[in-house]
Amino acid sequence: MRLLRKEKLLFWAGIGLGLYHLLIVSGVIAVSTMPMRLTHVMFAFSILFILKPATPKLDGSAANTVMSLGLIAATISASWWMLTRWKAIAFSGGLTETGDFYAGAVLVAVVFEAARRGVGLILAVITLVFFSYPFLSPYLPGVLYGRGYGFERIVLFLTTDTQGIYGIPVGVAATYIIVFTIFGALLSGLGAGDFFFQVSVRLTRGMRAASAKSAVMFSALIGMVSGSAAGNVAVTGVVTIPVMKREGYAPHQAGAIEAVASTGGQLMPPVMGAAAFIMAEIVGVPYTSVMATALLPALLFFGSAFAVVHLQGIKNGITASPENQADGRSIGQVLLQGIPFMAAFGILIALMLKGYSPFKASLWAMAVLIGSVIVQRRGIDRELLGKIASGVSEGGRSVVTISAACAAAGIISGILGITGLGSKIALLIDVASNGSLFLALFFTMITSIILGMGLPTTAAYLILATVVAPALVKLGVPVLSAHFFVFYYGCISTITPPVALAAYVAGGIADANINKVGWTAASYAVTSFVLPFAFIFGPGLVMQGTVLDIVTAWVTGFAGIAAISIAVIGCLYQPISPLLRIVAGASGLALLFQSPFTALAGAAAFIALILFEKSRAPAQT
Length: 621
What we know:
It contains 28 helices and no strands. The protein has helices at 2-25, 33-51, 62-91, 98-118, 121-136, 151-160, 168-189, 192-204, 210-226, 229-247, 251-264, 274-283, 287-315, 331-337, 339-353, 358-377, 382-419, 421-433, 437-452, 457-467, 469-474, 479-492, 501-510, 514-524, 526-537, 547-569, 578-592, 596-616.
């Protein structure tokens, strides 16, 4: 009974949070920036403390209920104080009183606990390390030395200004992200998942390794609206992994393929997960620019995934499968049933290309989606209203953990700004690389993967955007390219051992060793570790430069990922020798790094490899 009451409370709280923000972004109600962010954090954290227990062991216990209610009361009280004080503080030029400090201290403590419950201990610890820096800096050596700040000064800066907890990340969560989580939840609730799956299996029917290819396609489509690699695996993996195992993939291979495909969904426009909207706001560019930058790298990612599963299928002796996962409908019937989803995506993309803000475009897309479903069902009934209400509630609840990550990132960003630590980190990377852009990128990659371990993509990107990306900008890398570089590594950290969240979820579903799944997924996605370097040195890969640069990038990019896939799997028409794997890998790298000399050399070596292998196995072509 208690569980039912909790679920009902969360359902209505989710609806309340979702409707509140839909009314704000639609312009029905007008709320200033600071009050909107304050109320968002207040409502989101209150839901989070109901949704997430203090520890799994305490879930459902009286102790957990008391702690959670205490945190909710603290959150609401401190937030309400700030709501009554923000205007006086702003209009007085920042003059505060004792009560502001006490309320701020409570809010900082609440953010740490929300980050721990909602995202994990790793984020809470990283945030605490940065929060401690102003108090420890007078005792640190070398470039990390600082004059230090008092506890009260730091708390007030972080809680009474829009450069701390209530900064850009929380603002994005309260506008862009919540609208898109509701949009994604409505799509799922109204049947988009089944539509995507049926389209995927029909497009890959009759192919070698059809189940794995449909898994890649299905996960890419779902990943565009889910924003979570591990969550995407949990949704799609239960369908795709068993089928891949039946087709002939080893359990760890099936799990790895699903983990890689689910990770790539966050890189695929038009909806790339929460982190992409935050990137657009931080960098100060239209979201369409982020989409354009992401397009070719995303296609290369999935091109690589298709090549890997095809070649692994050849190596495993898998042929075209007679198993048909499709239902009895024709492709025309499936597409007709999917008109609401195609119309919603169509209007979303069209409006963003016309210059509408992402959240305005998504509001219209939701209206088109619901209107199309009503027309298709020829009316509104209780079932449809229930699905719409569930979608709004699920979308509202989905944003609370993202909001916790955004608030924690606000603390990190605020500390970097007030202490100058951001400039010091950039200086450290510059000194360690001795002015070499390649070494600076390499150190940034390692830092990005380490900081991203165990964190969802949004939390990983928020930390990387505030800590690491500015260092690349100071070395002359364009701002958007620098942020996309760390965003990319933040995404693939979910399949990078030793902490590979997406691979662990896939391993559990596949009943395989999770570490083996993680290392296999990392090897399958090895192209992804190279691509960010390639688009820094070859801007055509991110749709920058002349038309010739962009066309050349497309051609050499797809050839390069094919060659690297051959090197990773060790198979073309048949298994190849270690020496030829080295040749394939070298030619792929040469093709990806866009200089004319390396591209020609890589193309020549790759063509020679294909002709040689074709001559050895003419019957298998």
